[in-house]
Amino acid sequence: MAEAEAFDRIGADWDPDWLLTDAQKELRAQLIEICNTTLHPNAIEFDKTYEYPRRNMEALASLGLLALHVPKKYGGLGENHVCVAMVLETIGRYGCPSTALVYTMHLLSVSALLFRAEGNPEIEAVLRRLNDDVFIGTASYSDPETGSHFWYPMASKAEKTDDGWRVHKKSSWTTSGGFADFYVAQTSSPDFNGDFANLSVFLVMKDEIVTGESNWSAMGMRGNQSGPIEINGVEVNKHRMVGFPGDGATSNDEALDPIGLTMFAASYNGIALAAMDIAKGQTTRKVHKDVGMRVADYPTIQDYVGECLMDTEASRLYTFGVAQALDQATDNCDWTRHGREPDWTPRTNLLHWTWMSKFISCKNVYNVLDKMLQACGGSGYKTSLGLERLLRDGKAGWVMGPTNEVLRQFVGKAALLGMDSLDYWNQVPNEGVLNNELKKLDEDAKRDLIARLSADLEKQAAE
After folding, report:
1. Reported pTM
2. What topology does CATH give the domain 137-240?
3. Distance between CA 144 and CA 175 in Å, rounded?
4. Least confident of 96-105, 214-223, 254-263
């Protein structure tokens, strides 16, 4: 069975459609059609050529999806978090995982803009261009010095100018880097004084960033074109700051992380479903004539699919449940209320639930891909079936920031010691460890430490 061939998928009886409105079901049907005719065939090609999936983004724009959760007052569809999760899952399942990732980062950048859109002419102009101009955005938050701890931008700064701001940024990983039309970038604030919790967000255009020749070469997600970018002292007007100085940490916890992690989870749920779709097509068609049984007739294969489907449905329902909670907390994803109430941050209280959503989904897809490969046997190992491509794409989720290791520690530490113990910006000393280490010092080492601390105090006093 060739990858592009049609086959019977896991049936609609296994879709939690009670969560969707009739309009959302219709949108999904239209999206599946575009996935079948455009996104999926292109996914096969892009995996071979590393082409950036702009053609797929153009197809999404034809349905208005580049402004999916943008309020109607700005020309968007005004959809909610549940719909966002459904769309990402659908693209991951029926379409193109690389496009799902590019689209996730697009909606992530749009979310940052929506959080502070009210009364900002630069942001409002971008929001109105999204579909008509296929105006693709991305978020540039990573830092070469802090890796997946993207909330800690050490290689960045911003300065106040007479007309606005001068922005300096180095990013180690930016999806769509050099291909996106606009970038939402985070730096330390113009009044930075050593506190990396003091962050600001800026809107930067494609011609204002520097990126090298495209050299993205990876195991999977070959269309997303992730790579380093630089913003080298670009001067922007005052409206290009998204929000106000120091608003970055609040933006992270309210506008980016909750919806971003939900989108990641939904995308990888879609990839898990796609793998099971392929396995169903292969195992129900492949016949062992010596025993008169299809591969799907073997209890072992049924066990593989049954357990993987139950685990994936649990992940799907968790993701949709978190999306539903976000809708309930935000008046059904009403971004305009942030303009009326700038201190309104209802998603922040649900952030830790979205951590778990991303972790569960990206852990589950690892297992599902491996089991579906085993179910398909040697045919699954061949590139022609398409499972091999999904396996490579699906492995990306675990290592994307925040990585599953980071999320697992966040949840465990916060559950045991409280949310304040997380100390994102390394500001709170661990006095227990510190005091224990001091016991190990001999007299000379203690005198040396006292001298160095005294010198630091004198330097701080002089400054």
Report:
1. 0.95
2. Butyryl-CoA Dehydrogenase, subunit A; domain 2 (2.40.110)
3. 14
4. 214-223
